[in-house]
Design a protein that fits this description.
306 residues; alpha/beta; Arc Repressor Mutant, subunit A; D-Maltodextrin-Binding Protein, domain 2; 3 domains; seven-stranded mixed sheet; two-stranded antiparallel sheet; 23% strand
Length: 306
């Protein structure tokens, strides 16, 4: 179909690479080249200047790219209007999510979304915030959901879900009998922290900085690359840590970890939606994001009435 060829053409233009485009659309590089060649034969002229190291559009290619974006936007609008009438949605979404939201928030949301729209295929890529930004820049995901705000001004960013980071200790720790501690207590204890590039780590350090503390003031016992490994370390008595309330809910219920509050005040953040500036999201992706935005309130409401 011509719309698929145009979408592929735009992907090649925006990534400036046949190989990157092939990864995004899940086709081999020769298949991508053949599709572009078919477009060039259809229009009877070259669309790319391949004489240089970088891929550059010809004047005709420039015109086609501009008009193709309008055509694809119109096609997306048609999908929306038909879906509203029929109630049917098809297609797929590729989501990039940072560790906390990808492991502890999205799975439940995706399951419920799939129950409502069983024909939608969803792929979820999980990594730290820096990795998700890289995937979005390469257009390997439709959008990203990350902890905190993106460090890149080239992305559009929108807060989407509330989160709170809480201090945690093992149930054998002396603090397990307490409800509240201070930052001054934490800097005296061995501390387990996420790796560089983690949104959770950055938020913790930003909060400590408000009270004049830096990374050198912490007694770092371990630096670990996942929330799961931090929970295991804390449960094993290696030290204390600060993690998302979403991430430690199960361990609290099972009596493996104890969460506390901070005397200085809660560490509150937002999970953010990040998009490429000129992104045209398919209708299914827009519907999923609407579902996500409504979902946390539904969870909070149901938990309050248990």
């Amino acid at each position: 179909m011509m719309d698929m060829k145009l979408k592929l053409f735009c992907t090649v233009v925006e990534t400036k690479s046949f190989s990157k485009a092939s990864r995004i659309v899940h086709l081999s590089q020769p298949a991508v080249s053949m599709q572009i060649q078919a477009l060039e034969e259809y229009f009877g002229t070259k669309l790319f200047d391949r004489s240089r190291d970088t891929l550059k559009l010809t004047p005709v290619g420039e015109i086609l790219y501009k008009e193709a974006k309008h055509v694809l936007a119109h096609y997306t609008d048609i999908e929306k209007r038909i879906a509203k009438i029929t109630g049917m949605m098809r297609g797929g979404i590729t989501i990039g999510a940072s560790t906390t939201i990808g492991n502890y928030v999205l799975p439940r949301i995706i399951i419920d979304f799939k129950k409502r729209y069983p024909k939608i295929a969803i792929s979820l890529w999980i990594g730290n915030t820096k990795r998700i930004e890289e995937l979005l820049s390469s257009q390997l995901v439709d959008f990203g959901l990350v902890e905190g705000e993106t460090s890149r001004t080239t992305f559009k960013s929108e807060p989407i879900i509330s989160d709170e980071l809480v201090p945690i200790v093992s149930t054998n720790h002396p603090w397990a009998r307490k409800k509240m501690i201070s930052l001054f207590d934490i800097i005296r204890e061995p501390f387990v922290i996420r790796e560089e590039g983690s949104g959770t780590r950055q938020k913790i350090m930003d909060y400590f900085a408000l009270y004049g503390f830096g990374i050198d003031d912490l007694h770092i016992a371990l630096t670990l690359g996942s929330t799961e490994s931090i929970k295991v370390a804390v449960e094993g008595g290696i030290g204390v840590s600060i993690l998302s309330k979403w991430a430690v809910r199960k361990e609290q219920e099972e009596g493996k970890l104890h969460a506390l509050t901070l005397r200085e005040g809660n560490i509150v953040r937002k999970f953010s939606l990040i998009l490429l500036p000129k992104a045209i999201l398919p209708h299914v992706a827009e519907e999923f994001l609407i579902f996500v935005k409504k979902y946390p309130q539904e969870i909070i409401s149901s938990e309050e009435h248990k």
